[in-house]
Amino acid sequence: MKKLFTLVAVALMAGGAYAQTTVNDGETITGDLLATALAGGTEATIQIAEGATVSVNSLSEDGETTKLAIPEGASVAFVGQGEGATLKFPESLDITGTHQYIRFENVTIVDDGCQYFINQPSDALPCTVGELSLKGVTINGLERSLVRFQNTGAAQEITHLVIDDCVISNQGSGNYAFIRANNAAYTIGTVDITNSTFSTFQHNFMEMGGANITAVNVSKSTFYNVIGDGRYLMDFKGVATNVSLTDVVLAKTYAASTSRGIRTDGTVTTTNTYVSSDFVLDRYPFAEGTVITEPALTAAELFQDVENGDFTIMEESLSQLGDPRWIETPSGIDGVTVGEPVDEDAPVYNLSGQRVSKDTK
Questions:
Q1: Of 50, 222, 245, 298, whose CA is between 20 and 30 Å from 41?
Q2: What is the pLDDT of residues 34-66, one digit of tens each?
Q3: Other CB atoms within 10 A of residue 173 CB
Q4: What is the rounded CA–CA span in Å between residue 149 and residue 162?
Q5: Would you say the pTM of this structure is higher than 0.85?
Q6: Residue 202 gets which letter from DSSP?
Q7: What percentage of the chain has pLDDT greater than the value 90?
Q8: DSSP element (H, E) containing 302
Q9: pLDDT, tens digit, 9 for 90 and up, residues 269-293
Q10: What backbone phi and psi angles, to 5 degrees, belong to 254?
Q11: Which of 174, 221, 176, 230 shows the shortest CA–CA distance to 199?
C-alpha cells in the first residue's frame, strides 16, 4: 500500500519513542499513519506541510470514511508548518481511551461534514485526556460543537482544555453549544481561553450544567455577536464553577433581547471587561459596577469593521482590551498588529492575522 506520508525523524524521549511525521498536500491522516508514526511509542507530532490541505479520517474495511481514533495511551500533536496548513474533518475526532495530551497548533480546521470536532457518542467507552489544546487555530463555520459529550454513562474527562491565539467564527448553525457536556459523568476540569476572538456564535458558548468543571478563565479575548435565543454565554446550572474574565470585550449579542449571561453556583470575577451597549442580556446580567459600560458604544461603533471581521477597537480608552491581534501599534497602523505590541508579553501578528515570532515579524 502506498504510504501517504513521510517519516522524517524518530528520537528517544522520556516515556518512549517520539516521532515526527510530515503530511503533504492532498494526503490523509489515518489510523495507520498514526500507528506508524508512534512506532510503538506513546508520543508523536504530525507536521502538516506549509500550504497543505489534508483530510483527517480513517477508512473502514469497505473503504468508507470513519472517525480517526487516537490510539489508546498515545499523545499526539498536529502542528502546521508555516502558513496555510489546513485539516479537513469529514468525521469527528475520536478521543476514547487515555491520553496525556492531544494538541492542535498553527492550523486551520475545516468542518468537512463532521459537524462536531469531537463528539463522544452515547455508546462511547470512557476517555481521559490530560490536555486538549488549540493554539494558533482558525475555525470558520463549525456547524455544531467543538466538544460534545453525548448522553453516555461512561466517564468522559478532559482535565485541561486550552484555547489560545485562536479565531473561531460562525459556529452553531446546527443548534448546538460550542462546548457541551451536561452530565455528572463528564469532567472538563479547567478551561483556559486567552488571546482569542469568537464571532457569530448562535447557541450557548458553554453548556455544562451538572458536569464537573472547576474553573473557566478567559483573558485578552474578544467576543462579537454571540449567544442565541434563550441561550447562555456560559451555563453551569447546579455547578459551583468559578469564572474569571480579564481584559475581555463582549460586543453585541446574537439574539437581540433574549440572550443570557453566566449561570453558575460559583463566583464570577471580572477585571477590565468591557460590555458594549448592544450586548444585551435578558437574564443573568453582570452585577452593576463589575464591568465597564462607558463609553456606551455599539459593536459597530466600537470596532473598525465588523462586517469584514476587523475588531480593532476605535475607542482609545478601551484599546488595550480584548484579543491582542486587534491592538494597534503606537504608530497607528490600522488592522492587525504588525510591530512590537504595547504589551511586551502579547503575541505578534503579521498582516494576515497569523502569529509570528518577534524575531521574524
A1: 50
A2: 999 999 899 999 999 999 999 999 999 898 999
A3: 15
A4: 17
A5: yes
A6: -
A7: 80
A8: helix 299-302
A9: 999 999 999 999 999 999 999 999 9
A10: -65, -45
A11: 221
Nine cell digits for residue 49: 506541510
pLDDT of residue 331: 41
The helix, strand and coil proportions of the chain, stated in percent and rounded to the nearest 5, come to 5, 45, 50
Please give the single-letter amino acid code of residue 235. Answer: D
For the chain, the residue count is 361
H or E element at residue 34: helix 31-38
